[in-house]
Write a structure and sequence with these properties.
- The protein is mostly beta strands.
- 0% of the residues lie in helices and 50% in strands.
- The chain contains no helices and 11 strands.
- The protein has strands at residues 3-7, 10-13, 18-25, 33-39, 46-51, 57-59, 67-72, 77-82, 91-98, 112-113, 117-122.
- Strands 2, 4, 5, 6, 9, 10 and 11 form a 7-stranded mixed β-sheet that branches. A 4-stranded antiparallel β-sheet has the order 1-3-8-7, with no helix packed on it.
- Strand 4 and strand 5 (46-51) form a beta hairpin.
Length: 123
């Protein structure tokens, strides 16, 4: 069983930065595909970025060049560095993991989820 705990959300002005953390336990992240999803009010949950153990990454077009996913095997933690934040990035951000190596777009493909952390970007 994998447990995920997110931290690092908050309120930031447009153009600012935040770093989200996803601490994993129960399995090493080097054998997981880990993704960050977000869900804004009234909208579907969408995959923002993901990475697998071979280093394959995926980024939503609207965050390319602004967001970076990374992992620290020693800490068993995955990070999401978010720069140049925009009001449209406002959402609850969820860390999710799956044991397969493929980066999947659908939230239904991820068996393990964190509790979510709110990110609010003011204009």
């Amino acid at each position: 069983q994998v447990q995920l705990v997110e931290s690092g959300g908050g309120l930031v002005q447009a153009g600012g930065s935040l770093r989200l953390s996803c601490a994993a336990s129960g399995r090493t992240i080097s054998r997981l595909t880990v993704g960050w999803f977000r869900q804004a009010p009234g909208k579907e949950r969408q995959l923002v970025t993901a990475m697998n153990w071979s280093g394959t990454t995926y980024y939503l077009d609207s965050v390319k060049g602004r967001f970076t996913i990374s992992g620290d095997n020693a800490e068993n933690t995955v990070y999401l560095q978010m720069n140049s934040l925009k009001p449209e990035d406002t959402a609850v951000y969820y860390c999710a993991a799956r044991t397969g190596s493929a980066v999947k777009m659908s939230s239904t493909q991820y068996a393990y989820w964190g509790q979510g952390t709110q990110v609010t970007v003011s204009s």
